[in-house]
Design a protein that fits this description.
The protein is mostly beta strands and 227 residues long. The chain has one helix and 16 strands. The strands form four sheets. The chain has a six-stranded antiparallel sheet, with no helix packed on it. It has a five-stranded antiparallel sheet with strand order 1-3-4-5-6, with no helix packed on it. Strand 8 and strand 9 form a beta hairpin. The radius of gyration is 19 Å and the shape is globular.
């Protein structure tokens, strides 16, 4: 099915480089928690760890950060059509780096033929609030075939679905997302509220570990048009 969108209020959009694994904070009392240790600069396998007081450079930092092990970009919100249609949707693009290659190994040579050892995951969901019909799809793709992300600008794709910033000067986003042959989203999104950076000193801690942290950024409201 296809529908037109006249206006849309977004719940969020973000790009989040992450490193490390989360652990629960140990309890020191009924309500107190232990302060997590200072962050180290890199994980044991060589990936960067988000540090406090980041100096983001936009629009470049809307793009990919290969020096981090995990990152993702997501959109979620409500769509309103011209005939009182109402939909909820969510689209997420994940990028995860694989284990660093051993240049002398046969596996490394074979892996190079695929272009990269990065893995991309796409998740798309759409809900029709009037009928209760819910559609969703996941795709897992290796980089170098049908998935990629630019480190110079926002331009990430998995299969036919993509999230881009066509003109960085205007800070508008373009989304194309597909739920097989059941539905599609072709949207143009423009921030109407400033970018928000979460966490203390620009870092969102994930647990009591010296690598469990992320940079977490979001545009809390986006005006949208499309089909």
């Amino acid at each position: 099915m296809r529908f037109s969108v006249s206006f849309f209020v977004a719940l969020g959009l973000g790009c989040f480089p992450e490193a490390g694994s989360a652990q629960a904070h140990p309890e020191t009392g009924s309500s107190a928690t232990k302060e997590p240790p200072p962050l180290i600069e890199r994980t044991e396998d060589g990936f960067r760890v988000p540090q406090p007081h980041p100096a983001f450079l936009f629009p470049k930092d809307h793009g990919s950060h290969p020096e981090f092990k995990i990152e993702w970009w997501y959109l979620t919100g409500h769509l309103f059509g011209p005939s009182k249609e109402r939909f909820g949707y969510q689209v997420t693009f994940f990028r995860r780096a694989g284990a660093p290659r051993n240049p002398s190994s046969q596996d490394s040579t074979q892996s190079e033929r695929f272009g990269s050892n990065e893995i991309y995951l796409l998740h798309v969901a759409l809900l029709d609030l009037r009928t209760g019909k819910f559609l969703h799809q996941e795709r897992l793709v290796r980089s170098g075939w049908e998935a990629a992300a630019s480190s110079e600008r926002l331009d990430v794709k998995v299969g036919d679905s993509s999230l881009r910033m066509p003109d960085p000067a205007t800070e508008r986003f373009a989304l194309e997302a597909y739920l097989r042959d059941k539905a599609s989203l072709t949207l143009s999104l423009e921030p109407v509220k400033p970018l928000v950076v979460f966490g203390k000193d620009g870092v969102s801690r994930k647990g009591n570990s010296n690598t469990a942290a992320s940079w977490y950024l979001t545009f809390p409201r986006l005006r949208t048009e499309g089909e």
